[in-house]
Amino acid sequence: MKVLGHTQTETAGAALANAVRLLRRPPGAVVALLGGELKPGRLLDHGSPFLQQALEDSVFAHLVAARHLLPLLSESALAAHYLVIGGPAAELPWAGYGHASIASAALRMFSRALREETQGGPVRVQQLSVCAPLRTRQRGHAACPDWPEPNELGLQVVDLLSAPGLEPVVRFERRPARQRTGPTPDPLSETTP
């Protein structure tokens, strides 16, 4: 069953949680992938609303999602997992996309703080940090060879949910083609403490 909703406001987050609760079956996992298309622009060329919007679209929307969906996960009889998916630019600034770098770094710290605050509880919180933009149809013409395909990200998410590790942040990087041949490589081998 599909439940539609968003987490741009507290009211919308509560409505989403209520819609999930009406399914009468607590979810075993939440995969929180929020955000939209990156808009280019230097920080110094835009006013503060430009950065504020980037933070609202990523960090604040994730906060609303966590506030309303984590309690649902804690109702599950099985071990539950809350996985935050963050985009690239958290480690190094992207020229012309400074607002995205700041929002990505803030999301990483949000995930770590959320994990600390929920430690010892019934829900494991982790972040999957995607280290390059996804190779989509819209970006295919400009994609670099190391940009992962969306299905590769999906497989990484499934692997992480089926065998959650202890790391608060797990890095997902596409491996060079020569390393992807033969048996499927261990998707969790690249981690950060």
From TrEMBL:
Residues 171-193 are annotated as: Disordered. It comes from the Bacteria. This is Short-chain dehydrogenase. It comes from Arenimonas donghaensis DSM 18148 = HO3-R19.
